[in-house]
Design brief:
The protein has 394 residues and is α+β, with helices and mostly antiparallel strands. It is built from ten helices and 16 strands. The protein has a domain at 129-220: Orthogonal Bundle (T-fold). Helix 3 (96-117) packs antiparallel against helix 8, helix 5 runs parallel beside helix 9 (343-354) and helix 8 (234-249) packs antiparallel against helix 9. The longest helix is centred in the N-terminal third of the chain and has 22 residues, at 96-117. The N and C termini lie far apart (42 Å).
């Protein structure tokens, strides 16, 4: 069951998705991959796009205009549910039946990852993040490889960021979640957590206390007060693995948007035209405009923004990205975008950049291969790394 913030987030995703002249998941219709219009998926929390032509006339004309000599057509589909957001997939396939099979495969794949990475719900026969939290202080939990992969990614992000990303921050984030939900339910009584209760919870957030036996495949939290929160990275890793699975199954040209995570493989025309991804303007409450657009292939574009989940106390907004040092949200940026070969890594590190100065953020990114970033400051001013400019669409 979605809380108030989750419902608002999903509603925003649906509103933005209405911009798409998309093809329904239950009834895909084909478009010519050589069409002049372009999918411009936004990685900023919702799957938004500049619309492709999708009228009956365009669909009929597509049979005479294949993408390449191989006869590939471009299709688009959307579905709801997994990771509590809108999933949009655009890909090239020989026919509608083939594309629909890929979409069904994708939905099943993401559903599995959603269940594994869920920290709120239990599922029959599934040892997930909630299972680990439920067994804190009791017994190690045997988990599957996708959960171990997520643990490894979270540890790496924590090391790279100097502790600015911490999957063990669950006790603190749970307090903020409860206050945010209460504030959304009754704005007149919205309040902030006290420093004392946050500090008390913070005693149980040492990531070094998380015990992982890589050979046995177990995860153990030695104190009952500990809990994991994998919101920084789980969706990105699932997006990355899903695209890898589609490519291995034969769909080599695909653009997947899973909430704020976009992963591109291959090309829009199946030959050499990169995919176009829009970066949402965080000052636009309706989510109708882009502040920048980038041209990508073989990389991910991940954006985190203050507009995703927040509540208001005494006229001031408090967003969901918590600084592990202060235990409160920072107020430096409106959004941060990372382009990286790894969607999982990018998802984790956008959180880190939110809690760092631009200078420190650039220094962190310099440790990585081909990772670039764009910051939207509170003033609306945009700054980005030198390498980011190479991706920008003029």
């Amino acid at each position: 069951m979605l809380g108030q913030s989750g419902q608002r987030l999903l509603a925003a995703a649906l509103a933005a998705a209405s911009l798409l002249c998309s093809l329904a998941f239950s009834g895909c219709r084909q478009q010519p991959a050589a069409a002049t219009s372009q999918e411009t998926l936004s990685p900023a929390v919702t799957s938004t796009a500049e619309p492709d032509a999708s009228s009956d006339a365009s669909a009929a004309a597509s049979t005479a205009n294949p993408a390449t000599a191989s006869g590939l057509y471009r299709y688009k589909a959307q579905f709801l549910g997994v990771f509590d957001t809108v999933t949009t997939v655009v890909g090239l396939a020989t026919d509608e039946t083939t594309f629909t099979a890929y979409v069904n495969r994708l939905k099943d794949f993401l559903t599995d990852y959603h269940e594994l990475y869920d920290s709120f719900n239990n599922y029959d026969g599934v040892s997930n993040i909630k299972t680990i939290n439920d067994q804190a202080g009791i017994v190690p939990v045997t988990v599957s490889q996708p959960v171990l992969d997520l643990m490894r990614q979270c540890l790496r992000a924590n090391s790279l960021s100097g502790g600015q990303v911490n999957m063990a921050l669950g006790p603190v984030l749970e307090i903020w979640h409860d206050y945010r939900e209460a504030g959304l339910d009754d704005p007149a009584t919205a309040a902030l957590p006290t420093q004392s209760e946050l500090s008390a919870a913070n005693q149980y957030t040492d990531i070094n206390q998380v015990q992982i036996d890589w050979e046995a495949g177990t995860v153990y939290l030695p104190d009952a007060h500990m809990s994991l929160d994998v919101g920084s990275g789980a969706k990105g890793l699932a997006c990355e693995r899903a695209v890898e699975d589609l490519v291995s199954a034969g769909m080599s040209n695909v653009l997947l948007s899973l909430g704020g995570n976009v992963m591109a493989a291959g090309y829009r025309d199946g030959v050499s035209e990169p995919w176009k991804v829009g970066i949402k303007d965080p000052t636009d409450e309706d989510g109708q405009t882009y502040i920048k657009a980038v041209s990508v292939s073989g990389v991910s574009v991940v954006t985190s923004g203050v507009y995703e989940r927040y509540y208001t106390v005494d006229g001031q907004r408090y967003h969901h990205i918590i600084n592990p040092q202060t235990l409160f949200p920072d107020n430096r940026y409106l959004s941060v975008t990372i382009i990286d070969a790894s969607s999982g890594e990018a998802d984790s590190l956008t959180t880190a950049l939110f809690n760092m100065s631009i200078e420190d953020g650039k220094q962190m990114l310099s440790k990585l291969d081909h990772a670039e970033a764009l910051w939207v400051l509170n003033s609306g001013e945009v700054e980005y790394t030198d390498g980011f400019a190479a991706y920008l669409v003029s």
